[in-house]
Specification:
4-stranded antiparallel beta sheet; 8-stranded mixed beta sheet; about 0% helix; mainly beta
Amino acid sequence: MHTYIAREIEKIGYRPSSLPNSENQFTWDGLRVGVFRIEGGREEQVGEYIRQYRVLFDTFCHFMSDGKDYALYSPNAYETHLMELPSCRHLGEEQFEGLEFCPVAYYVPTFVEVHVTNSHSGKIERQRLNQPKPDDFIIPNPKHPDRVKVGPLQYCPFGFVAGCEWGDENAWKIQYLDLSQVSQGILKRDARFGYIVLPLNQKLEEAIDMEEFRYDFDPDDTSIYINIRKRFDVETGQMSDF
């Protein structure tokens, strides 16, 4: 099984165009980011891109759709883009009507199909294991001897982005990404969950709970739990805005 990661290769300083002779003054800092393919313990650089912001954060996320590799990434700090892998070719950017959203992290949930022997009937049932952990790939699994993984790791046709709307940097918010049309270079973002805030000191993937086990294999069953942060007035008990 392979994956792709990205990391900073070099810091870049941009000089202000109004000061062409100022060799040591810059308007902002950016990064040259390398993209690497990892498989079987080996790492190979397959490309790179420029991020016009001084911090990378977790703004690169590899996922697969219809057997092809893609990545969510942010080259300009205020919107999400779509990359084809391993070519690192830019496919498109998010479609959204409203304020720009500055991403700091992405998450695309995964699942595997498992066959489980029903302890009562003895029949084998086709079920779905969400967000599988490394131990879940052990066959046979000593923790679940009746559970056998079949098929490859699969990615949901949607993902999540944490970040802030332009001018609202009080806390990281969580929004939805539609990945169902990535083969056409189409990526859609929306705030269907409302104004929800990622808890402090918690990663985005830790805040999204897909429910570990589903007792069927319906790909359209996509209810989730989201850990969110709320603010309350101690005197009144009323919830207030951030």
